[in-house]
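REQUEST ID: PR-0412
SUBMITTED BY: lab tech R.K.
PRIORITY: routine
TASK: structure prediction, single protein chain
INPUT:
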Amino acid sequence: MMNAIKEGTNLSANAVPEWLELVRRQVNSLRFGVVQIVVHDSQVTQVEKTERVRLAPKHLS
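STATUS: complete
OUTPUT:
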């Protein structure tokens, strides 16, 4: 976001880009996983979320 502001996009001081809100929601919905941001020509074009489910280790008896 800082680069977008530095490069002169028209964001007011309190405006948050739609993609950034999407990334925040995706991150907040994860316990374990990855959120990737895909960029083409300096524009965010895609947000991908990969979620991992961790299983509790079974104790050997």
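NOTES: Residues 17-53 form one domain.
REVIEWED BY: pending
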